[in-house]
Amino acid sequence: MNDISPRQKVVLAALAAEQSSSFAPVQVQKLFFLLDQNIAADFGGPQFSFEPYDYGPFDRAVYSELEALAQKGLVAIEAAPGASRRKFSLTAAGYDAGRAAFAQLSDRAQEYLTRVSAWVRSLSFAELVGSIYKQYPSMKANSVFRG
């Protein structure tokens, strides 16, 4: 697809690191924050502008990109069962586009994406936010989280 921006390719590659992955809002925010903090150079620089927010690093543009990709049929956004929270996952076409973008990354970036994608999804909300605060204390500045 030619109408996918470079940043959208990064989003697709990150979400395609593991097949059949779905992400809660906190997980996508922290996933892209960690990419920007630790391997931004692999993507031509930081992709987002994270600021300290209620639950740590946040950039509304993460959701804007996911919503734009949903409009293109590449991302599925659905309400989590029994909750008002959303879940983000790739459609079949999105996974194919994401794997193509993933394949163009360096081995280092591929390994990091795979590892951090699994890590953010393995933790509870409190564990993930707490871990980010421990590693990046400046992101705790405007927090309402007390876990």
Please summarize the sheet with the most strands: 3 strands, antiparallel
Counted by DSSP, the helix tally is: 6
Low-confidence stretches: none
**How many whole angstroms does the radius of gyration measure?**
14 Å
Q: For the terminal residues, how far apart are their CA atoms?
A: 42 Å
Strand order in the sheet with the most strands: 1-5-4
> Structural class per helix/strand content?
alpha+beta
* Range of strand content: 5-15%
In total, the number of strands is 5
Give the fraction of residues assigned to helices. 40-55%
Q: What is the typical, i.e. mean, pLDDT?
A: 93
* Overall form: globular
Order of helical and strand elements: HEHEEHEEHHH
Structure characteristics:
single chain, about 150 residues, alpha+beta, 3-stranded antiparallel beta sheet, two-stranded antiparallel ribbon, 6 helices, globular
Write up what this structure looks like.
This protein is an alpha+beta fold. It contains six helices and five strands; from the N terminus they run H-E-H-E-E-H-E-E-H-H-H. A three-stranded antiparallel sheet has the order 1-5-4. A two-stranded antiparallel sheet has the order 2-3. The model has no long low-confidence stretch (mean pLDDT 93).
How is this structure best summarized?
The chain has 147 residues and is of the alpha+beta class. The chain is built from six helices and five strands.
Strand-helix topology:
Blueprint lengths: L5 H10 L6 E2 L1 H14 L12 E3 L2 E3 L1 H12 L3 E5 L6 E5 L1 H12 L3 H16 L2 H11 L12
Antiparallel strand pairs: 1-5, 2-3, 4-5
